[in-house]
Specification:
The chain is an alpha/beta fold. Helix content is about 45%, strand content about 20%. It contains five helices and seven strands. Helix 3 crosses helix 4, helix 3 packs across helix 5 and helix 4 runs parallel beside helix 5. The longest helix has 22 residues. The radius of gyration is 16 Å and the shape is globular.
Length: about 180
């Protein structure tokens, strides 16, 4: 698994797609989209991303939650691009009843475990796997308690995914900066 992080508009998606296309010759390519589309801005973002992927052989699967249902069938090679962990985390936290019986801190831990276990299932099934996430919460802003808990959850998930990944790349201004892996 390669974990690709960076700020909004940093070029993460383009870099991830480039990696998948370069590394997955002979593979079936899947784009696992986690964004729940709300409003015109969301629709425009989805259309922009679809245009960027056009002609690259991706089959798009919309999966805003429970991404661990992907299974490898037969001998065909599988390349998966999951975009993006921050959307997936928000969907699991705010749009699911998973762990709601737990106290908030324990729910956050349980959600982190679930999200990472789901992603690990994809990693096990895929021959090549790129995961996109975001850097959030480092802007120095003060947020309400619920958003702070989301930032904490995403931080937990990102840390665990970084440990699982063979490579971690931060994309800054379109430039990939290796944080973990062969080129570090």
């Amino acid at each position: 698994m390669i974990l690709i992080s960076g700020g909004s508009g940093s070029g993460k998606s383009a870099y991830a797609e480039e990696c998948i296309v370069r590394m997955s010759q002979g593979c079936s390519r899947y784009y696992l989209a986690t964004m729940q589309v709300y409003g015109e801005e969301g629709r425009k973002k989805v259309e922009r991303h679809k245009k960027l992927r056009q002609g690259k052989g991706f089959i798009t699967i919309e999966s805003p939650k429970d991404v661990g249902r992907v299974e490898k069938t037969g001998n065909n090679k599988l390349a998966v691009l999951l975009e993006c962990v921050s959307n997936l985390t928000a969907n699991e936290m705010f749009g699911s009843s998973f762990g709601t019986e737990l106290e908030p801190g324990r729910r956050t831990e349980a959600l982190a475990e679930k999200i990472c276990a789901d992603i690990a299932k994809i990693d096990e099934a895929a021959d090549f796997f790129a995961v996109i996430t975001n850097e959030v919460g480092s802007d120095g802003e003060m947020y309400e308690k619920e958003i702070l808990e989301y930032i904490r959850l995403l931080g937990l998930v990102n840390c665990r995914l970084a440990k699982m990944a063979s490579e971690v790349v931060e994309v800054v201004y379109g430039i990939p900066v290796m944080k973990k892996g062969a080129e570090v």
